[in-house]
Amino acid sequence: MTHLIYIADPMCSWCYGFGPELTGLLDTLPDARLDIVLGGLRAYNTEVMDEAKKATILDHWKHVEEASGLPFTRHGMAQPGFIYDTEPACRTVVAARTLADDLPSRAILDVFHAVQHAFYAEGKDITDLHLLAQIATEALNKAGDTGSFDAGSFYETLTAPMTIAETQQDFAQTQRWGISGFPALLLAHQDALHMVASGYTKTAQLVSAINAVLRA
Global pTM? Predict the structure, then answer.
């Protein structure tokens, strides 16, 4: 079985752009295992974003939009007093991982993508924990074709000390691997980790990189 490790942050614009490429890869590997490790791009940031920083980030978004064709809205960052703290979004994926460990691994990726879509395409405030619980619950129920997940229970898990600590462990693991840029995709093969993507990468290149490792 192909084992992939995706290191990313839901509030990383290039990770958002990479979403369709990763989905395309997984469509060619229906039995693949995908583990998501959260990177913590701007975790625990407490500074209100000034106009200069907003302009810089929006310029990045423009490049991602051109490369990926995905929809973007600037409303999310236009909120007064916006603080670009990526920890709550990352923690949401960790909470989903905890609650949905019986679902296929792509269900967790669905939550990751749902959080991204809410921010980049709909301009929602995904530092709001109650909103994040709602987004994740809807994504999990859709992925599992069930109504067994509810926002209240998800919120309890999202705010639990264990979930906060596990999110920190993800950030620490990312640092131990020496990964500072996202997205990154690793292939676990023969007791070693092989980098198959560092940054935005097209599906065809991902397939070629994986095949090269498997043939070596």
Answer: 0.95
| CATH for the 3-215 domain, from 3.40.50.300, 3.90.550.10, 3.40.50.2300, 3.40.30.10 | 3.40.30.10
Cα→Cα distances 44→28, 41, 119, 190, Å: 36, 9, 18, 36
Listed in sequence order, the residues at least 6 apart from 171 whose beta carbon sits closer than 8 Å to its beta carbon are 38, 39, 40, 43, 90
111 φ, ψ (degrees, to nearest 5): -65, -45
- Where are the chain's structural domains? 3-215
Q: What is the DSSP track for 23-77?
A: HHHHHH-TT-EEEEEE--TTTT--SBPPHHHHHHHHHHHHHHHHHH-----SHHH
Secondary structure element (H or E) that encloses residue 4, with its range = strand 3-8
Whether 9 and 86 have beta carbons less than 8 Å apart is answered as yes
Place of tokens 């990763």: 22
pLDDT tens, residue by residue, 38-70 = 999 999 999 998 888 888 999 999 999 999 999
What are the pLDDT digits (tens) for 160-187?
999 999 999 999 999 999 998 999 999 9
